[in-house]
Specification:
By secondary structure, the protein is an alpha+beta fold. It contains 5 helices and 12 strands. The strands form 2 sheets. Strands 1-2-3-7-6-5-4 form a 7-stranded mixed beta sheet, sandwiched between helices. Helix 3 crosses helix 4. It is globular and about 55 Å long. It binds biotin (BTN). The site of biotin has 19 residues, from helix 2, strand 3, strand 6 and strand 7.
């Protein structure tokens, strides 16, 4: 059984619209959500541990049973915003801030890493597919609520548990995403830029061909591509094409 208090996780959600699964251990909450038939508007999957957690770019998401958050939310949509991955980063940062009584002010690293004190505390993996001619979107969120300390670039929220119980954070994230799904998010670009840790500063990126490009990060376009000011002018670069070097 999951140690999460299910009523607190689901507090205030319209349960007619939500089907929820809580696991002690599972391969991946995203994999399970993708396989699950949508009988209601949303499928929510939570686990205390993942044995085959998935990260971006085919990487593994280390998912020990140490009190972290492994969450997936699936829904059907007519279309999926190309910038959804960045928007979800903003929503998670907002949920952290608001549900902690403004005590946790996280920052974003393009495209959607969530950082606290320059260390990554949350990763987001969004998978979409067409199922019986309908689009299905699975949003996977891993929050390092409490990790065994490993590499120096990983951070967590330990020390803040009294400020922000896990259930309260999950509940805030779910409400933010459901509201976004129903209503969209008009000024997300400005909110994203306000939270970005490298807005208007010099960065180096490594392309998928292992080429290094230097420039000044000038925000994102409406599809979520990075706008990099280089000696050849502003280039719009998508997240599949490169990663930012250094920074944490
Ligand atoms: C990243 O590489 O930064 C994205 C990590 C996403 C991890 C989460 S944990 C819950 C969900 N299930 C998965 O297998 N992956 C995502």
């Amino acid at each position: 059984m999951s140690k999460l208090i299910q009523n607190d996780v689901l507090k205030g959600l319209n349960l007619d619209n939500v089907e929820s699964y809580f696991f002690k251990s599972i391969d991946s909450t995203n994999t399970f959500a993708k396989k699950t038939f949508l009988e209601k508007a949303f499928v929510i999957v939570l686990a205390e541990q993942q044995t085959a957690g998935k990260g971006r770019h085919g990487k593994t998401w280390h998912s020990p049973e140490s009190g972290n958050i492994y969450l997936s939310l699936k829904y059907q949509a007519d279309s999926i915003d190309p910038c959804i991955t960045l928007i979800v980063g903003v929503l998670v940062a907002e949920a952290l801030y608001e549900s902690s009584g403004k005590k946790i002010n996280a920052q974003l690293k393009w495209p959607n890493d969530v950082l606290l004190n320059k260390k990554k505390i949350c990763g987001i993996l969004i998978e979409s597919e067409v199922v019986e001619e309908k689009m299905e979107c699975t949003i996977g969120i891993g929050v390092n609520y409490s990790i065994p300390k490993t590499e120096s670039w990983w951070g967590d929220l330990s020390g803040l548990k009294d400020v922000l119980p896990r259930e309260k954070l999950i509940n805030a994230i779910l409400k933010k995403i459901i509201t976004y799904k129903d209503n969209g998010y008009l000024n997300w670009q400005q909110q994203w830029a306000d939270k970005c840790m490298h807005q208007n500063i010099a960065i180096s990126i490594i392309t998928s061909q292992q080429k290094e490009i230097n420039g000044i990060f000038r925000g994102v376009d409406n599809e979520g591509k990075m706008l990099l000011e280089t000696s050849n002018g502003i280039q719009a670069i998508s997240s599949g094409e490169c990663s930012i070097k250094g920074l944490y």
